[in-house]
C-alpha cells in the first residue's frame, strides 16, 4: 500500500506530528534484512539442478533446498530474538539457540548438496566451510542472561517473564492493526508502544517496581490488544469513522496513563534515593565523619 505524503501543508498536516515522531524514538534498523533475504534466495538454483537430474540425485537436491530454507528461517528468527534481547536491560537468554541451529542446518544442507554433486569428501568440506562462514556472518546466540548479575534472581526473573508477556501483547497489537489498512492508526499504535516500552525499561531498572506496574504490563495491555483486534476487524470491513475515533481516543488515554505511571515510578525511585542519602548523611553526622561545607 502506498503511503501518502504528509507535511505541514498537506491535508491533515496541521495536526500534531508528535505521535508519528514518537513511533520512531529510540528506533533501530533491524539487522534481519538483506543478508537474511539472500539466504532465502541463494539455494533456489538447486531447483533447476534437481529437475535436471536422475531421481535419487533429484531427491538429494530437494532435501538440500528444504534444509537450507529452514536454516534461513531459523537464522532470521535468531536475529529477531537477539534484537529483542539487546533492546532489554533485563533478559533471559533464548531458550533455543536459533542462530547456532541455523549454522548447523546450513552445514547440513550444503553437505547434502555436496554429496549429490561431489561425493562424500566434497560434502564434508561444504559442511565445515558453510557452517563456519554462517557463524562468522551472523554470530552466535546470547548464551547467558543479561541484567541479572548481583540482583535478586527471583525478582529479575519475574520481571523478565512479565516483560516477555507484555511484548507478546504489543506484537499482537501490531499484527492486528495492519489489517485495518490505516497508516495513521498504525503510527499511533507505534507511539503507544514506545511509551509502553519506556515503562518496561523502568521496571527492568528496578524490579521492585513490578508490583506497582503489574496491571499495566498484563491487564491493561491485554485489554489494549483485544480492543485493537476488534477495531481492526470492524474497520477493515466497514471503514467506520466513529470506531476509528473511539479507538484513537482509547490509545490517547492508554498512552497518557502509561506515561504517568512511568513518571510516578521514576519519582518514587528518586524519592527513595533522597531518603537513602539523608539517612547516610545523618549517620555520618552522628559519627562525626561529615565535613561541614
TrEMBL record:
Organism: Shimia sagamensis
Sequence segments annotated as region (Disordered): 1-25
Signal peptide stretch: none
Xref: InterPro entries: ChloroindolylP_hydrolase (IPR018770)
Source domain of life: Bacteria
Pfam families linked: Halogen_Hydrol (PF10112)
Annotated coiled-coil segments of the chain: none
Transmembrane regions: 34-51, 57-75, 96-115
Swiss-Prot/TrEMBL keywords: Membrane, Transmembrane, Transmembrane helix
Name of this chain's protein: 5-bromo-4-chloroindolyl phosphate hydrolysis protein
Amino acid at each position: 500500500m502506498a503511503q501518502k505524503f504528509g507535511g505541514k501543508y498537506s491535508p491533515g498536516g496541521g495536526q500534531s506530528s508528535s505521535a508519528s515522531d514518537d513511533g520512531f524514538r529510540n528506533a533501530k534498523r533491524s539487522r534481519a534484512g538483506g543478508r537474511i533475504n539472500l539466504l532465502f534466495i541463494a539455494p533456489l538454483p538447486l531447483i533447476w539442478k534437481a529437475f535436471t537430474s536422475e531421481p535419487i540425485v533429484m531427491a538429494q537436491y530437494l532435501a538440500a533446498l528444504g534444509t537450507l530454507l529452514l536454516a534461513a528461517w531459523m537464522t532470521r528468527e535468531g536475529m529477531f530474538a537477539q534484537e529483542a534481547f539487546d533492546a532489554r536491560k533485563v533478559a533471559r537468554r533464548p531458550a533455543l539457540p536459533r542462530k547456532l541451529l541455523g549454522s548447523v542446518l546450513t552445514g547440513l544442507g550444503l553437505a547434502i548438496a555436496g554429496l549429490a554433486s561431489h561425493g562424500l569428501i566434497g560434502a564434508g568440506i561444504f559442511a565445515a566451510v558453510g557452517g563456519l562462514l554462517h557463524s562468522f556472518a551472523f554470530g552466535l546466540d546470547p548464551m547467558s542472561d543479561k541484567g541479572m548479575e548481583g540482583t535478586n534472581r527471583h525478582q529479575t526473573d519475574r520481571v523478565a517473564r512479565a516483560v516477555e508477556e507484555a511484548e507478546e501483547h504489543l506484537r499482537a497489537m501490531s499484527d492486528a492493526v495492519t489489517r485495518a489498512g490505516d497508516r495513521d492508526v498504525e503510527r499511533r499504535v507505534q507511539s503507544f508502544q514506545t511509551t509502553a516500552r519506556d515503562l518496561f525499561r523502568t521496571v527492568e531498572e528496578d524490579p521492585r517496581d513490578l508490583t506497582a506496574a503489574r496491571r499495566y504490563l498484563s491487564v491493561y495491555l491485554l485489554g489494549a490488544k483485544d480492543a485493537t483486534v476488534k477495531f481492526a476487524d470492524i474497520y477493515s470491513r466497514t471503514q467506520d469513522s466513529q470506531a476509528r475515533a473511539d479507538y484513537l481516543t482509547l490509545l490517547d488515554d492508554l498512552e497518557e496513563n502509561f506515561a504517568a505511571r512511568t513518571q510516578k515510578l521514576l519519582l518514587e525511585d528518586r524519592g527513595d534515593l533522597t531518603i537513602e542519602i539523608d539517612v547516610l548523611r545523618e549517620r555520618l553526622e552522628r559519627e562525626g565523619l561529615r565535613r561541614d561545607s
